């Protein structure tokens, strides 16, 4: 008895209520060769020291995270803890032992030898208020500025086990894997993260920011270091912030730019020691949002 073969056909299923987009991510390439993992042994001496300092600070901050520390209030009414001071001391010792001629600008200790060609910019615990209240959106930020240009950055999200870094011309990396911003250019499809909305609301850009919010696919406030890691990884498209200083964002700025993004203030100026706001995005949306915010 002959067995009839079933004619199996694939039936096309339509979803009338929404479009389904297939996202294809291309692997970043350097000099025509696909690079998947970072070889830390081949890193510059500057980067090796910065990574070692970030890891040492992570050990210290984890030790204090359970709450066994004192908190005092600085003149600007922001908190500082024993952990901030211990982390900055450890970082400065590691850096200045290796590079004694370099300058150092720390959140807690201020500026030393600030006119040097190389100036280290350090926030030992960026997000001290988060640290005090024991939620994990704090980090250690270490950057190196050479003659006014940021050339290296390390961003350590201690409790989230995220260590990101970048060096000028050498790409951006997260836990050893290469980073690349997204290529989404449509504001209707963009995910945007905003920080320090209180000060943004008091400024001239608030209504213009509202126009961006109205069109965006998703608005979140991931905050502090984390939304810059997401942006550099192509998981969101833009970050808008106000009321920041150079120590908050120096490392993130080069991580984003080396991942293919654009990082300026809300007026379109590149980061310098006087920066007070941020517009960071992939190139297409940065141009779009900058035009709206000006």
Give the SSE map:
Blueprint: E1 29-30, E2 33-34, H1 45-64, E3 71-73, E4 79-81, H2 82-98, E5 103-106, E6 110-112, E7 118-126, H3 128-132, E8 139-146, E9 149-157, E10 162-167, E11 172-174, E12 177-178, E13 191-195, H4 197-201, H5 206-215, E14 218-220, H6 224-232, E15 238-242, H7 246-258, E16 262-264, E17 277-281, H8 283-293
Parallel strand pairs: 5-7, 13-14, 13-15
Antiparallel strand pairs: 1-2, 3-4, 5-6, 7-8, 8-9, 9-10, 10-11, 11-12, 15-17, 16-17
Q: Average pLDDT, to the nearest integer?
A: 89
- Total beta strand runs: 17
Shape: globular
The CATH homology group name of the largest domain: Fructose-1,6-Bisphosphatase, subunit A, domain 1
Number of helices: 8
Helicity range: 25-40%
Strand count, sense and barrel status of the largest sheet are: 8 strands, mixed
Quote the beta fraction.
Answer: 25-35%
Write the CATH fold name of the largest domain. Answer: Fructose-1,6-Bisphosphatase, Chain A, domain 1
* Structural class category: alpha+beta
Distance between the termini: 80 Å
Q: Reading side by side through the largest sheet, how are the strands ordered?
A: 6-5-7-8-9-10-11-12
CATH architecture of the largest domain: 2-Layer Sandwich
